[in-house]
Write the structure tokens for this entry.
Amino acid sequence: MMNGKEYIESLKKYKPTIYFMGRKIESVADEPMFRPHIHAAAMTYELAHDPRYEDVMTATSHLTGERTNRFTHIHQSVDDLVKKVRMMRLLGQKTATCFQRCVGFDALNALYITTYDVDKKHGTDYHERFLEYLKHVQKNDLMCVGAMTDVKGDRSLRPHQQKDPDLYVHIVERREDGIVVRGAKAHQTGAANSHEVIVMPTRALGPEDKDYAVSFAVPIDAEGLINIFSRQTNDTRRLDGDIDCGNAKYGIVGGETLMIFDDVFVPWERVFMCGEYDFAAQLVETFATFHRQNYGGCKVGVADVLIGATAGLAEYNGVAKASHIVDKLTEMIHLAETCWCCSLACSYEGYKTPSGAYVPNPMLANVTKLNVTRFPYEWSRLAQDIAGGFVITTPSEKDFRNPETRELIEKYMKGVDGVETEHRLRMFRLVENLAIGAQLPESMHGAGSPQAQKIMIWRRGSVDMKKELAKIIAGISEDEHFRKIVGKSEEEFFREMLERLKKS
Amino acid sequence: MKAGIKYCGGCNPAYRREKVEEILRRAFPEVHFFYISSGDLEDPRRLDLIDVVDVIVCISGCKRGCAVESVESSIASRNGGTSVTIMSIDGEREKEDIIAEFERCLKS
């Protein structure tokens, strides 16, 4: 297993094609605009070596018996699913941002389960190929980006109906030694600083979409693979110093790219689905279940930091004991812990699949994520309320460092006695980062937008069963247990009761 | 032939679990079906009853599979284990599919 420093060094062995702000990036590991995201991912490596955290950060590979980083592990039990979300919360607390590595982790687990099922039905050998790939990932402790979301073009059209066929990643050539793919994936979290890319389809597919039913893995520096790093709110603040970013060390959300496959060749041993459109929906749903499971872990870890920052600011502002502040902080904690309950619940209700790997309860995983599309907005609103207006009007770090304005800022930005003005500025910026920035739309759209969760919840809501429960209580359908309790039918029971009442 | 039936606790089933039992009882009148209770699974002496059954049908209300989990963990903790066949149902299934699987289990 690599530690954090070794992970950063390992990135120097790769030569990916990445563009940002009009320039081609020469070295990912040395790029100041990428460094915060790299540090956040490095935490997933570093904590695996710390005896205080190794219990959740590592696992024993069921393939090799070796101790591995949990991010490369296939869940072998409900306990593994629970430890996964414990790891997510821990890393959220340690980085206060997205640490990016869960996407590839979830892709590995979803493919493990789905390739097994595909082979069973179609007699293919994807699972064997995938096991070899998984061993490679575990042995080298690689970070993988899970590439699912296609750019999609006209959302009302299916992949094969698009005017431009490249708006979903698809196979353009089948060769003796492999396939050639073209298309693009959007919002690729952690792509710039990953070692590998694992591609999956983004939606249910029909026979006409056969060429879009493709899953494979390539190194991040594969020929023809181009990443364009996305802008974020306030991103260039990281070039101004270490205060204005709020979280200068670990950044904000994951650092996403637009990932383009410009005729990328994939050898057969790295192809895990090639035309089996009937399994595209299963792969998407399994991946989504794993990914939605996470959000009551990682986002709650980040919320823990926000609650701490908000409570700290209330102290610096001299209002910590005001009852309405305590009440609002309590509400923030309640909202965060509710999301945590959801992540734990879907993990504890997880089950074994035919492949032997475990998956969380899909209904509860979707409920987890749907809550995370809402609750962070409320806990962020409360944080903004408690922090006060300075959360968006604090003078810049450059003015704080300028001798001409330093004393004025020190004097007029002072809070309670005994707290340095700089600490107050830093806390305002941290709340700004966590409660106003890109964290919120990430909670909304990461792992799928709210409607995607609602579709899954409705499908699995067992409404017919619920209607039957209602009919029994309403006296429309027979209540067999009531009959046993009272020793007669409902009709007889109520008739006799009314007669007794009339007589009394 | 004898078949034990073990239900999960039924906290939030996604389908009407009783349907499975009804289908099997109707399709296999020659088989003697009886219930296996949690008490049977916890008591090593009562657990010996699994030596006389041909199949244990575990009927769970959802994929969590609590019925098969409780049966398997009891058998695993039993001295010498057992070779009894277990049939696990954890979701809505077609009648023909249930009957075919039970037949396979009886033959195994």
In short: The two ends of chain B are 13 Å apart (CA to CA). Strands of chain B lie at 2-7, 32-35, 55-59, 85-89.
